[in-house]
Amino acid sequence: MNRTAIAAALAAALLLPAAAKADDAPGVFKIPGTESTIKFYGYVQLDGTVDFAGRPSTIEDFDWATVLPSIPSDESDDGKKHPQTYLTARTSRFGIQTSTPSAAGNIGVRLEGDFNGPSYYQSETYTNSVLFRLRHAYGTVGNFLVGQTWTTFLDLGAAPDTVDFNGPGSLALVRNPMIRYALPLAEGMNLALALENNRGQQYGPDDRTQMIPDVHANFTMNGGWGHLSLRGVAQTYTRQVPDGADVKNKSKVGFGAAASGSVKFGGDTLVAQVAGGPGIGRYMLNLVGNEFGNAGGGITSKTHGFVTVNGEDIELWTAYAYHLGYTHVWGGGARSNIVWSQTFIQDPKINDVAQGNSTQKEMMQAFVNTFFPLAKNAEVGVEYAFGQWKSFGPNDIKGVQHRVNASFHYNFF
Question: Are the C-beta atoms of residues 158 and 170 closer than 8 Å to each other?
Answer without folding.
Answer: no
